[in-house]
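From the thread on structure requests for the teaching lab: each student submitted one protein with a one-line request. Submission from student K.M.:

"Model Methylase from Streptomyces rectiviolaceus, tokens only."
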Amino acid sequence: MTGRMIGHMTGHMIGRSSASPPAAAAHTLSPMASRTPSRPVGTVTRGTTNPNRLRRMDRWIAAAHGAELRRSTDPVAVDLGYGAAPWTAVELLARLRTAAPHARVVGVEIDPARVAAAKPYEREGLTFRHGGFEVPLPGRPALIRAANVLRQYDEEQVAAVWERLCGRLAPGGLLVEGTCDEIGRRHVWVALGPEGPRTVTFATRVGSLDRPSDLAERLPKALIHRNVPGEPVHAFLRDFDRAWAAAAPYASYGARQRWIRTVRALAADWPVADRPSRWRQGEVTVRWGALAPRQAQ
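Reply posted by the TA:
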């Protein structure tokens, strides 16, 4: 799935793809129809969730998007597809308010039974609604987080989902879509603005890694099937492993110091978009254009 495909995919998110390869290299999302569907768009996920599972993503969002939320006159964040329990929405509110005290969170779930189960957890700044990728809010949210939602979809459906969700964002808004393991030790996500994908972030508890390419199993759907020779994400993970091996002497100072040294070396050849303050958290963020798939499958 490349950024080039996004402007060529329209209509419903299920089962639609471009009929021919795209001719242009634009990374722009075209606006989708504003018509509200009569029923939620999407399918029910497994709903697996655990407390603190999304802590790495939440902290990154608060750091990267907190200033925009503070500036917003309506700082609404959507936890899309929060699952069988409302923990991730509850935690998102608490973490966003460390950066934007007036932030509000709306949990959106396509399974009405899950919405009913979450209602007792509503409080000031936190509500739950029945819905799907149409994001049934009266206004446009400043943030949409979709974690562990798209893994069950086909790769060719991702661009239409991104397009639809980005079309719901307020000006200056952010969509964060990605995947993590069951306890949140390993996580990879894509950050998108209304214009399309911007960056890919790899985040981990560094001590859990044998090598950085262990994160490959958590690549989001747009990239996970592209971890093959000839694709940029495969080359990136190969170089990441090589830099990790070269930084082995720093392991005596701890896994975190080895990670920092590894990312510093990686930045010589790849467009790393963040600073050592984030590397110390076990993160590295890379420009989307460097990792985007070369062509549609």
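TA comment: The chain has a mean pLDDT of 88. The chain has one domain: 3-205+273-291.
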